[in-house]
Design brief:
Length: about 600
Amino acid sequence: MKRNKLPALCAAVGVLVVIGVVYWPVHSAGFVWDDTVCMHDSPGLRHGDFWSQLYSSAFCGWKNYFRPLTVAMFAVELRSFGVTPGPMHLIALALHLANTILIGWLAATLSRRGGTTMSWTSALAMALYGLHPALIEPVVWISCRADLAVTFLMLLGLLANGAIRGTATRAIAIGILFFMAAMTKEAAISFPGFLLLFDWIGVEADNDRLSVKDRLRAILRRQWPVYAAVLATGIAYLVLRFAARGFLINPSGPATMSLAARSQIVPASLLTYWQVLIWPMASMAPTHSFEAKQFEVFSPSAVAVDLTALAILIAGLYWTWKRNPFGYAIMAINIALFPVLRVISAQFDPSLYHERYVMTGLALATALLPCMTAYASSQLWKRPMLRVAAAIIAALWLGAAILNIGVTLPLWSNHARLWQWDLAKDPESTTALAYLLALDDVDNQQKHAIADQVMSRHTTCTTCLINVAAFSIGEGDSARAEAALDLAIVRMSPESGDEVWQAYIIGRGQLNALRGDVPGATEAFTDAIGIDPSNPKAHFALALALASQGRSIEARAEMEKTLALLPPDERASGERAYELAIKSAEKSMAGKRTQAQ
């Protein structure tokens, strides 16, 4: 027995080493996308009331975001490492490796239940999960920490469910893990479904001759305290969420799509995620924007999509009932995808899909690989050539996956490269356009082209227009800056968010300053600070405006506030910019006094 276990253990360790080597470049990756706005630039997590940040504050201004444990991880890391992204990336990689280990552990557990000795498939399961290109995004993008953590907690919950024999202890442990998962990310809503599925698998392994009714009775007799604990902790989470936010789902969010569009987008999303699971290399990108109107047209192709999605659902249910491990895997994936298919009437994301959302379903499907290979070996693989072909396909897939990670990882490691990639994939991506206008390491020639593109079409992207204005002000082009701000105010609504309104007001203040209306600029910057006093940009702009009026004491006080709010790596440059502005203002005022004399 020991001789049989050692090769499998060595294979599992080898897989972890390969994953670590392939992903090691993340240690030098930077902050990208929301990392920059919500962690690097925002002082909220670096200092202030820690507990308020975790519970009552809307992280990064997102009203529906209630993930206290995720925010706690960010806060602890930012207060420990400052604004150095390297250690935060390594923590994400460590979580990814931990999830891979848990998958190998769960796969080995299921393999023993099924009576198979094919333990090498546990290592293969770890490789297919750990090297799946769809998981590049959460490993290298710090803001996706919730996806890694919620998968870790749900895997722990399933392992605890199978390992803990005492009913009370098992119920308490699983209740706690489910509550922690819910406090990490809303996708934990899938956990009760996973729990029931794996209980079904466990009961049938104990006695394959039980009828469906007897299996369900056996599950309830053994597990009702566990289900009661999950229900109680789920209610506790909802109570805490409502107390913190005042709602369960933000009622003032974006307009929901029509029933006709949603009836088509659900099956279309499901098939897209299945394609991502099988061959993710085809269409990877940071965003996948879509128009809801495209799903309101009923066509033969839409019917084909609907029927295919329905076939996947029915196959999962039927094969699970028939005790087929492939059915278990299909069910696990479908349950995991349920929260992101827009079944509920809510428009939670402007992208049709994100590759990272397949993470938990992929984890459970790969953990079931020993059961699937054992079943295939006994039912399908009567000929050795089929096994050889399957091994070759797996090897080629893993090789392609490693190459894809090597190519894609650098794109996710740098802010400018990320959005250049997104714009190349989707020239209409408003997210890419908005970020490229705001980044310092994008050349002005491209920014001019993007600004022209934004201004020449009827865009609904208010952030794009505000960033066009900011870029134009830096170029001294007050006419285009005013035109962009005029369009932005028309496009904005009460749902635009405080961050967008504050950026607009700062833009108005900067335009006033460019035109010499310093009192008007001072008033605008003061109003912007009133919206969010923790924004260093507003304080810095006000400090410069006050300095240009000779109000040096007030200007210095605002600059002190700015320096306290700036990220540590920008404080020195911010102070230098202020001192240069002060000298320029003093020189200008001295010249005016000389002319007056």
